[in-house]
Amino acid sequence: MNRLVGRPAPDFSLPTALGNGEDFGQSKLNDYKGKWLVLFFYPLDFTFI
């Protein structure tokens, strides 16, 4: 497996929950070009089981 630290992230687009907690939107990596960005996810947040 190759190291990914220090390498540029591939361009991507994904659905996101907006800050109001009710609506969803679309985020793209290019929206944050030239800015610091920390990505995290917790896949169980929207599991309705």
TrEMBL record:
InterPro entries: AhpC/TSA, Thioredoxin-like_sf. It holds the Pfam family AhpC-TSA. It comes from the Bacteria. One of its GO terms (molecular function) is oxidoreductase activity. Residues 5-48 form the Alkyl hydroperoxide reductase subunit C/ Thiol specific antioxidant domain. This is Peroxiredoxin. It comes from Gottschalkia purinilytica.
